[in-house]
Specification:
Length: about 290
């Protein structure tokens, strides 16, 4: 693999025919090998992939259990021998300009350790979490209970992640990008560290972005680099479990990076609030699933 600039990693779990679409677009748009790490899928996604793609650049690792998003990516990140690595969700489809634009930006600025592009929904609308600020505790709690729109004046105007304007500026340095598609400089990972396997899914991308900044690297967003993301393909059959991982991830993120700002009583109240919010959201998810 000597001389190869980039490799792509896609973690799969029951992604159906979207996995084939994701891998096909990665092989077409990004030079270099593609490794699919399958977390013990029970659907036909891997069988369809093997049947449909014979490209020698494709490698499949099949785990016997679902070890989570971070741990599955780390199986490949521990043995990198390319200059860059792309982490891509199995429900993404790349546009032809994504890799040229992002690689040009990263090759021209060695301080960029992590980069992403403009992520679109299937209907062409923006997924505004493709670039975001690190959430404050208040913002996160209001967002969880769906009240952030009622408290717009209380937030820093123009900075709250769900309302950030998306544009096609060439390079913008942001707090965080979406874990649905991230390009990392391999040499920077040596200092930043691997993805935190304490997150099963959700918030590990925020954690990684935070650690890149803390390690002296920039996180960049390239608005003209466009890709499509069909959110929730792997998680739609298990909404309660996904919500649990989201709340647990939020607890871990704030514990790691915000906890020292508060005394033990406030920290206890914060943690209780995060998990108490899980209950009504889980009940609502169950109602929607059975209705």
């Amino acid at each position: 693999m000597a001389g190869i600039l980039v490799q792509t990693v896609i973690v799969n779990y029951n992604s159906g025919d979207w996995l084939l679409r994701a891998v096909s677009s990665a092989l077409e748009c990004i030079p270099g090998p593609v490794t699919v790490v399958d977390n013990a899928s029970s659907d036909s996604s891997i069988a369809l992939l093997r049947k449909s793609i014979t490209d020698s650049r494709l490698n499949v690792i099949q785990n016997t259990e679902n070890i989570g998003f971070a741990a599955a990516n780390n199986q490949v990140l521990t043995n990198l021998d390319t200059e860059f690595v792309v982490l891509m969700n199995p429900d993404c489809e790349l546009g032809p300009t994504v890799w040229p634009l992002i690689s040009d930006a990263m090759l021209s600025d060695a301080t960029i350790g992590l980069a992403g592009g403009r992520i679109l929904n299937i209907d062409g609308s923006d997924q505004k979490t493709s670039k975001r600020d690190f959430p404050t505790l208040l913002q996160a709690l209001f967002r969880l209970i769906g009240l952030e729109k009622l408290f717009n004046s209380d937030f820093d105007r123009g900075k709250e992640s769900a309302r950030r304007e998306l544009n096609d500026s060439s390079i913008e340095f942001v707090d965080a990008i979406s874990g649905a598609f991230m390009v990392a400089r391999s040499s920077s990972i040596e200092g930043v560290g691997l993805l935190d396997e304490g997150y099963f899914m959700h918030c590990e991308d925020l954690d990684w972005c935070k650690r890149f900044w803390l390690s002296g690297y920039k996180v960049a967003w390239i608005g003209a680099a466009r890709l499509v993301h069909e959110k929730g393909v792997s998680s739609q059959t298990r909404p309660v479990r996904v919500l649990w991982y989201l709340h647990r991830g939020m607890d871990r993120f704030f514990g790691k990076f915000e906890g020292r700002k508060y005394n033990f009583l406030v920290r206890g109240l914060i943690r209780s609030g995060i998990y108490l919010l899980f209950i009504p959201r889980a009940l609502w998810a169950i109602v929607k699933k059975v209705s």
